[in-house]
Amino acid sequence: MVELVEKAMAGAPVVDDRVARWRAGFDDMFSLVAGRFAQADSRRRARMYLLGLLSGAERKNSWTLAEQAGDLTPNGMQRLLGYYRWDADAVRDDLRAYVLDNLGDPSGVVVADETGFLKKGG
């Protein structure tokens, strides 16, 4: 899956049908939250931010996400997170609804466990 995300981010030619389906699914999902970002720049950055979070990058911070988006500095990603006005709770609710409608299974369980992420450094 990580490989598909990276191909989609890079705008790679669609050779694999899975990449096309993943990209279409991501586009559908993002269309649900795009209206939460009033400015075109904030929408574009939010899209790249989400793609970066879904990527296989080992570290995910403003620098690495900005680099993946093709930016030279993290300023744009930091502007998205700290300056632009958008409702994080509404975006979360939109994404949750999308997951339930498209990926959910009535008998499924989602478990998030931060112990799977080893801390690097001090």
TrEMBL record:
<feature type="domain" description="Transposase IS701-like DDE">
    <location>
        <begin position="36"/>
        <end position="121"/>
    </location>
</feature>
<dbReference type="InterPro" id="IPR038721">
    <property type="entry name" value="IS701-like_DDE_dom"/>
</dbReference>
<protein>
    <recommendedName>
        <fullName>Transposase IS701-like DDE domain-containing protein</fullName>
    </recommendedName>
</protein>
<dbReference type="Pfam" id="PF13546">
    <property type="entry name" value="DDE_5"/>
</dbReference>
<dbReference type="InterPro" id="IPR039365">
    <property type="entry name" value="IS701-like"/>
</dbReference>
